[in-house]
Amino acid sequence: MAEPDFTATGVQIGRGLRSLTRAGEVRISDGRLRLLTSYGSEIDSAPVQAVRASKPWFAPEDRASADVNGTRYSLILGEQDPSPGRPGPPSARRFIEAVRRAGGG
Q1: pLDDT tens, residue by residue, 18-52
Q2: Rounded CA gap, 86 and 62, in Å?
Q3: 1 in a domain, yes or no?
Q4: CB burial of residue 7 (10 Å; 0-12, 13-18, 19+)
Q5: What is the CATH number of the domain that holds 55?
Q6: Are residues 42 and 57 in contact, defined by beta-carbon separation less than 8 angstroms?
């Protein structure tokens, strides 16, 4: 399996006012965006070209939204306590740029 284009762990994923997972994973690899629970179960996935990622103008730096298969998910990116030697949490801007680079809008 190829190295993912983008991976963020410790992501809080919600739909509307409902939290789906507090420590999920967002992964972009092989032209697909996958939203996963903390146990690795798939919440949703779609080809990156069909995903729309954005950042609300009033939201903090770590928040983004993603429209996947007609469903809007709210994402709070970043591990609460990254391991020593690992980079800090990814920002929403990096997630949105990764979606656009991979072919989405």
Answers
A1: 999 999 999 999 999 999 999 999 999 999 999 99
A2: 17
A3: no
A4: middle
A5: 2.30.29.30
A6: no
